[in-house]
Design brief:
It is built from 24 helices and 14 strands. By secondary structure, it is of the alpha+beta class. The radius of gyration is 40 Å and the shape is elongated.
Length: 758
């Protein structure tokens, strides 16, 4: 049996190739590029703020993309046209499959298998009268198939070939079809085909790949110019302790605002007149700074616009206002890059690669700048200015002698009539906007828990151990603080960002993170009775809290006292029962001993279940932390920010005493209801009590920062004692050297070694 290769002459198999190729492109294109309309909330209008800046911002965002409607219409038309072509190709292929179906003469003649020759001739005559081309109902194509079927069954040799090979013509050569039309390899069309190949693969493809590569190497992963990142590294390394205004100068010097690096920047001749006029309204601008690149015109212009934005000075809508919207929209991404650069410099300093370590104030000044940009207000301004319709004239009512309201949380916890009286100058409609915005602002429960994971005693911290601080963030709306009753159930936040409990905690209630509900398969029945509860408490070992949160101090209690107090009731019960008969006493003692054994087993099982459940929770939290980070949380009320903004947070651990950063700032971008973050750092190499601070900072609102101090009672690391007599040293000097080597870890620094006077 021979073989032959042939191109598709009729174009049938080419449709298979075209159909599959079009489907591979069309399906993902429809999923990703089909214009999606946001689900409109019926109550969206009632949730919006109707202050003039918010209305102006919505109009700007609506008109910011004038070609969005025609662009979406064009995309829909192209996708729908592709699907129409796909459907036509599918129909063509289905017809082709029907035509190229297996040849069955019995089915064509509509006779059963094994029919006689007379029946074959009779059926042929009957069908030929209907399908003959000369008849009105004739069909030439079907008549040819009918004739071929008649010949296959009436010719003895053709019938044998069909029964043996499935083909009346006998065995044929095995053919391999190439799903391309034959005109591609024809000699007359070779020039055009080669020209098309050269255009696609030698010109168009290299240009597309080269353009993509050239653009990608200029930016970091966060779409920040590499030149800007290098400039950040230089200045933050040069000035380890940088003030806030210096951070603003470096931000304005970013090359994203330079025409030579960014073609989207617009330079006008009117800037030479408008920018100097703003100098008079903006003190401390330092426009005469001679340092490169802060002295360049683009940097001075960007710095002037940022200062005008923070001061809320209105700009010319036709010129500088457009520049302000572009520059301010870029600032949050650039500030995030500044935070990352400072963090990398701190890591390099710890690795002894650079000399100067940036202080904690530098990275915190970068974080402070982000909410300032979003809310368009300086750091020293009142957080109440973030509410609509609130200006400097309204603040005098908040700072009266009777009331001293400084934060948004304090204002939310007032009674409704007191809140209204402070804003009596506003109309009812304006006051509703204020309360709507205030009620949607975040109120975050900030809980901290320290432990040493994968250790026998997770609550005991030893020198050099890896400490895991679990930060649990639970977000509520500020409306939960409205009124006196709800305020009692939540902790207050003072001016320093520290939580202050509004009520005394119940007995046995600590500041640990909220415990998740246990599943049904982890629950276990427990025997009732007072004795069982007492025995369960006695058998449970008391936990050692070496890592404590300073906001919820636990008074020190002697370890012997709880045992003595728990033993007293048992002695009193024994003295009371001594008056009873001996028989009853023996029976009750036997029963109580059996109950105690049962309760002991149940309490041990319940403790094991608790430990298993805790391990399960930790594994689940680790898996969640490894998942992809979402960028959607809650919208921010920021009428002066030119784009939509979502609530993001930074959380980290620092040492205020030494002004150092212990963990890299974790950027929380998906705090919708609750988020758990695990921060890890190495415990100090020397035993002692250390105080560290866990911080939470918002990148969208001012006055919402929180911090908690944690105390670590670091114990001396355990020494492994191996009883091998053959390894013992006879010389005492060698033992002293080995002991000193074991005491010093590889993380020990000169600063960690205490002085002799201490």
């Amino acid at each position: 049996m021979g073989q032959k290769f042939q191109y598709d002459e009729s174009g049938g198999t080419f449709f298979y190739f075209l159909l599959s190729f079009l489907a591979l492109i069309l399906i993902p294109a429809t999923i990703y590029y089909w214009p999606k309309k946001k689900k409109r909330d019926p109550d969206e209008d009632s949730k919006r703020c109707h202050c003039p800046p918010c209305i102006q911002k919505r109009e700007y965002l609506k008109n910011a993309e004038p070609w969005k409607g025609p662009k979406d219409l064009l995309i829909k038309f192209l996708i729908l046209a592709g699907w129409v072509i796909l459907i036509l190709l599918a129909y063509k292929v289905s017809q082709f499959d029907y035509e190229m179906a297996n040849f069955d003469p019995f089915e064509i003649l509509k006779i059963p298998l094994g029919a006689s020759e007379a029946e074959i001739k009779r059926s042929y005559r009957k069908l030929s009268l209907i399908l003959h081309p000369d008849k009105d109902t004739g069909n030439a194509k079907e008549f040819m198939k009918l004739t071929k079927a008649y010949q296959a069954l009436t010719n003895e040799e053709a019938r044998k070939n069909w029964e043996k090979y499935g083909n009346p013509d006998g065995p044929g050569a095995m053919s391999f079809g190439i799903a391309l039309p034959s005109w591609i390899v024809e000699k007359e069309n070779s020039v055009w085909v080669l020209g098309l190949y050269a255009l696609v693969f030698m010109i168009a493809l290299p240009i597309v790949v080269g353009t993509w590569w050239y653009r990608s190497i200029k930016f970091t992963g966060d779409q920040v110019l590499l030149d800007t990142t290098q400039m950040y590294y230089y200045f933050f390394h040069r000035t380890p302790n940088m003030i806030l205004k210096r951070v603003i100068m470096i931000l304005a010097a970013s090359f994203e605002f330079d025409r030579r690096h960014n073609s989207e920047i617009v330079e006008r001749s009117s800037d030479n007149e408008e920018i100097p006029q703003l100098f008079k309204k903006l003190p401390h601008l330092q426009e005469k700074n001679k340092e490169q690149p802060m002295c360049r015109m683009y940097s001075i212009k960007a710095r002037t616009i940022i200062h005008a934005h923070l001061t809320r000075i209105p700009l010319n809508p036709a010129t500088l206002e457009n520049d302000r919207r572009y520059i301010i929209a870029k600032c949050p991404y650039l500030v995030l890059e500044q935070v990352n650069c400072v963090n990398q410099l701190i890591l390099l300093a710890y690795a002894r690669r650079i000399q100067h370590v940036p202080s904690i104030e530098t990275i915190e000044n970068c974080m402070k700048l982000c909410p300032m940009i979003v809310q368009a207000m300086w750091e020293h301004k009142s957080p109440l200015l973030q509410l609509p319709y609130i200006n400097e004239d309204n603040l005098k009512y908040f700072m009266s002698k009777k009331r001293h309201v400084k934060t948004l949380q304090q204002y939310a916890q007032l009674k409704s009539d007191e809140r209204r009286s402070l804003l009596r100058s506003l109309s009812d409609h304006e006051y509703e906007d204020v309360m709507r915005v205030l009620g949607n602002m975040p109120y975050v429960d900030f809980h901290v828990k320290c432990e040493v994971i994968d250790d026998e005693n997770p609550t005991e911290v030893t020198a050099g151990a890896i400490v895991t601080v679990t930060v649990t963030l639970t977000r509520h709306n500020m409306s939960t603080l409205f009124g006196d009753e709800t305020a009692k159930d939540h902790s207050l936040i003072n001016e320093n960002g520290e939580e202050v409990e509004n009520k005394e905690p119940a007995a046995g209630e600590g500041d640990s993170e909220p415990v998740a509900k246990r599943p049904a398969w982890m629950k276990q029945k427990r025997g009732g009775g007072k004795k069982s509860k007492k025995t369960g408490k006695q058998n449970k070992p008391p936990a050692k809290h070496n890592a404590k949160v300073e906001e919820s101090p636990v008074p020190s209690v002697d370890k012997k006292k709880p045992k003595e107090e728990k033993e007293k009731p048992s002695k009193e019960d024994a003295s009371d029962e001594s008056d009873e008969s001996d028989g009853e006493t023996i029976e009750t003692n036997d029963k109580s001993s059996d109950e105690d054994n049962d309760n002991n087993q149940r309490s041990e099982n319940s403790d094991d279940d608790d430990q298993e459940w805790e391990k399960f929770k930790k594994i689940r939290d680790r898996e969640r932390s490894l998942e992809g980070k979402s960028k959607t949380s809650h919208p921010v009320h920021c009428p002066y920010f030119p784009a939509e903004k979502q609530e993001y947070w930074w959380t980290y651990i620092c040492d205020r005493k030494s002004r150092t950063l212990l963990t890299a700032p974790y950027y929380v971008t998906s705090l919708v209801n609750q988020e758990t973050v695990h921060l890890k750092f190495t415990a100090p190499n020397w035993p002692g009590v250390y105080t560290f601070t866990v911080c939470l900072r918002s990148d969208s609102y001012s006055g919402f920062d929180q911090q908690k101090d944690i105390k670590l009672d670091v114990k001396e690391a355990y020494k492994e004692v191996v009883d091998h007599p053959q390894w013992e040293f006879e010389d005492s000097a060698d033992e002293g050297v080995a002991e000193n080597d074991a005491h010093e870890s590889e993380y020990t620094t000169d600063d960690d070694i205490p002085d002799e006077d201490d």
